[in-house]
Amino acid sequence: MKKYYLIFVAVFSSAVYSQQINEFRFLRYNDTISIDSTNQNFYYKIKQITVSKKAKVFLFFGGENRTQYQYFDNENWDEAYRDENGFILNRALLYGDLKIGSSFRLFSQLQSSSSISRLNPNPLEENPLDIHQLFFEVRIKNLNFRMGRQELYYGSQRLISVREGPNSRQAFDAMKIMYQRNHLFVDAFYGYYVKNNFGNFNDKIDPDTKLWGLYATIKRVRFLNNLEVYFLNLQKSKSTFNTISGQENRNTAGSRIWGAHSNWNYDIEAAYQFGKFDKQNISAWTFSINNFFNYQINKRIQKIGFKAEYISGDKIQNDNSIQTFNPLFPKGAYFGLAALIGPSNLIDLHPFLEFQLTQKLNFNIDYDMFWRASSNDAVYQPNVSILFNSSNSTSKKIGNQLGASFDYSINKYLSFTIEGTWFNSGKFIRDVSNGKDILFTASTLTLVL
To answer: Which domains does the chain possess?
Structure first.
C-alpha cells in the first residue's frame, strides 16, 4: 500500500516549473492566460497554441491531478468496516479551450477518477474516464450564452457547487445566460444533473433531476459590501425524506451578504423552501453565519472565527407538511473531507482557528458540535440520502467533530495537505448504530498545470 502511494508522490513531485504565466482558477474555464507573454519555454509552448494570430484564434490547455490517501477507523460508526491499510483515490482533469476572438469559445474537459485498495468503491470514487465538461459559449456585449455540459458554482457552495471534496466533481447539462454590467452579475440557467456511472464515457443526464434558477450578485453595496439574491427550482421524480418517498417540486428563495469591515469578515445567508413533496406542502428554511477576525503575528495572517447553522427538519410525521431542508447540490465535504453527515435537519456550532506558520505552511483546527434540529426527522448524508432514520431514538445530540490540517504550498503548481478528523458519537448515533467513534486521516498531493 505504501509503495503505491510513494510512487504517486514521486511522479507528481517531479513536475516543477520555473515560471507561472497564467492564473489558475477553481473553475478552470475561468483561467487567465497571458497571450502577450514573451516566455518561450516548453511549458508555455504547450500551454498556449496560436492557431491564427490575425483572427485571434488560440487553443489553451490545462490540467490537474489530485492524489489522496485516506484511512478510516470505524467507518460508518461500526468496527465491522475495517480496512487496515487505507486506500488511495486519484483524480485527473485535463482541459482544452478554443477561443476565437472575444466572442466565441469551445471548452472541453476530461475527468478520470480511480481508486486503489478501496473496498466497494462507488461511482464518485471510481469513474475511470468520461467527459466532465463540453460546452460552447457566445458573447454579445454584456451577455454570454453558454450551452452544454458544465460545472455550476454559486455563492458559498451551500446549495450549488462542483462537489470538490469527493473524487469525482459534478456537472450539469445546461443552458446558461450570464449578464454583467459594472457591479451587477445575473445568471439564468436551466439544466439536468449528470449522474456518474462506473465505466468509460457513460455519464449521462439524470432525466429525473432537473434544476433551473436565477442568481444575482451585486458588489460594492453600501453598508453590506456584497449582496446575492436567488431563486432556484428543483424537480425530482423520486426523493426520500425520513419515512416518505415521492415526487418533489421544491423552490428555494434566498439571500446572502458577505464582506469585510476592517479586520472583521462576515458571511450571512438565509433561504426558505416551498413547493410540493408527494402530497405534502414544503415549508423548510436555513440560516447560517460565518464570522472571523484577522490579526497578524510577525506579519503572518491569523484567523479566529465562529460558524453557526440552523437547517430545518420535519417536525411532525405523516401530517400535510414537511419541513426537511434540501441542500440541493452542496459541496460533498460540507463538514470536512471525511463527509460524515450532510446539511439537513441539523444544528451546527463551529469555532475554528487558522494559523499562517510560514509563507507556505498553514495550520487549521476546528470543532463542530452537531444536533438534530427535529427529533422526529432523520440524519442525512451529504447527498441527502438517509443515513439514520428517526425511529429508534428521541435524542437530538449527533456528536462532536474535531478536525485539524496542515496545508503546505510547495510551489505555484504543487501543494500538499495532511489532515485528521475525530468524530465523538453522541447519544443519537449510539442509539441507532454501534456508535463507535470515527477516526479519519488523509494526505493529499495536488498538481495544477
So the answer is: 2-448 (2.40.160.100)
